[in-house]
Specification:
Layout lengths: L3 H25 L3 H25 L5 H9 L7 H28 L3 H25 L6
Helix pairs in contact: 1-2, 1-4, 2-5, 4-5
Bound molecules: fe (ii) ion (2 copies).
């Protein structure tokens, strides 16, 4: 099992990748409202990357990422959007599990609290993406 710091670094990379992926997803969302919803989730992932960077004592080049995301042009593609969302539900459920594991192995109580806060966000994301694919079962 990789040590705690390595696992936090891997989680941080995944958050930055999720931000990129969700920015792309927002650009192909079939409606403006769904695009705004996905952009909001993308910003959550960026916030998670920042939390993990802070924990690691690292600096992020967040500006270059956000500029690139904002330059994307809207090109709705509902077929591709639904396929991406189906895969992303797995990613979000895996994130719930990974952060729960990090909360278990975190050496400090306040780190546990931070990880559990992220778990709550990822849980919400998983639920939101399920609701997006199947609106009648989202509540
Ligand atoms: Fe996240
Ligand atoms: Fe998430």
């Amino acid at each position: 099992m990789a040590d705690f710091r390595e696992r936090v670094m891997a989680a941080r990379r995944e958050e930055l990748e999720a931000y990129e992926k969700y920015s792309e997803l927002a650009a192909i969302a079939p409606t403006h409202e769904l695009s705004l919803l996905i952009q909001s989730i993308a910003r959550d992932e960026l916030g998670h990357a920042r939390i993990l960077s802070g924990m690691l004592g690292m600096e992020d080049d967040i500006d270059s990422l956000t500029v690139r995301a904002q330059e994307r042009r809207r090109m709705p593609d509902s077929g591709r959007f639904r396929r991406m969302v189906a895969r992303i539900i797995d990613d979000e459920l895996n994130a719930v599990s990974a952060y729960a594991q990090l909360a278990i192995i975190a050496p400090e109580l306040e780190q546990r609290l931070l990880f559990l806060t992220v778990v709550a966000d990822e849980f919400g994301h998983a639920r939101t993406f399920i609701a997006i694919l199947n609106p009648s079962r989202g509540d």
